[in-house]
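Wed. Picked up where I left off yesterday with Quinolinate phosphoribosyl transferase C-terminal domain-containing protein. The coffee machine is broken again, so keeping this brief.
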Amino acid sequence: LSLPGLALLLPPATLAALADSWLREDCPGPNHAALAVRGARQVADFALKVEVECSSLQEAVEAAEAGADLVLLDNFKPEELHPTAAALKARFPGVGVEASGGITLANLPQFCGPHIDVISLGMLTQAAPALDFSLKLFAEGTAPVCRAYRS
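Structure written out below (tokens, as returned):
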């Protein structure tokens, strides 16, 4: 399949993941974290915090060396997370470490530790019940008319 044909079959996020995977495996050499951090710093305001999502200690070190303000350790088990965070903080004490992925209120204490600065719980938004509401605006000087609806 040609790339245009592939684009018709796969969503953009999947194509991006495939391209990223290909770059990491087949094009050794460039530090992708450094390129991303440098690019973000060039186009962003000085107050921007740059965070890099990492899946290994090596990626986290590359991100910290590149100047990331925060390193997100994604989908680490607690027994992997804490030694990775400790090693990262030992080399880069000023870098913030965020834990994310697979964290729930039930297992939250396992992810807390002295080298973890931020913990993200996706379940707070992903599992939140929906609330149906509306907002009605009225022109100044007019009063709303109350209408009771019965089913």
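Quick read: Residues 12-26 form the longest helix (15 residues).
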